[in-house]
Amino acid sequence: MSEILAQNGIVFSSAALDAFFQKGELIPAVVQEAGSKEVLMLAYMNRVSLQKTLETGYTWFYSRSRRTLWNKGATSGHLQKVLRIYGDCDSDTLLLEVEQTGAACHTGSHTCFFNELWKR
Predict the structure, then answer these.
(1) Residues 6+ positions from 13 with CB-CB distance below 8 Å
(2) CB 33 within 8 A of CB 100
(3) Closest Cα partner for 62 from 45, 82, 50?
(4) Is 45 left (phi over 0), alpha (psi -120 to 50) or beta?
(5) 46 Cα distance to chain centroid
(6) How far apart are CA 113 and CA 12, in angstroms?
(7) What parts of the chain have a pLDDT lower than 70?
(8) H/E element holding 18?
């Protein structure tokens, strides 16, 4: 059985990660700024991107359009240092608390959620 050593020294077994991928190869990952609790973005992770995130301490995702892994901020410098990862009650969605450097959105906005659609 393979193991993954996370940045904080915790060892994860591949079996422990299996629960999150029982319903499919990709799972949604909500990225939240640790200090403000603002939701920055939603992306998708596969097993490899989650493993790379645990190993490096920085976010890695799977691009559905390009069909490849990408390290958030690798080209822009707008990195996301992962502080905590939570799994939801159904083990099919992740919440990543991060320290965001620069903008989270490819448009240059701090968050991807800036298009207000409705307000009471």
Answers:
(1) 1, 2, 3, 4
(2) yes
(3) 45
(4) beta
(5) 10
(6) 32
(7) 1-13, 16
(8) helix 14-18
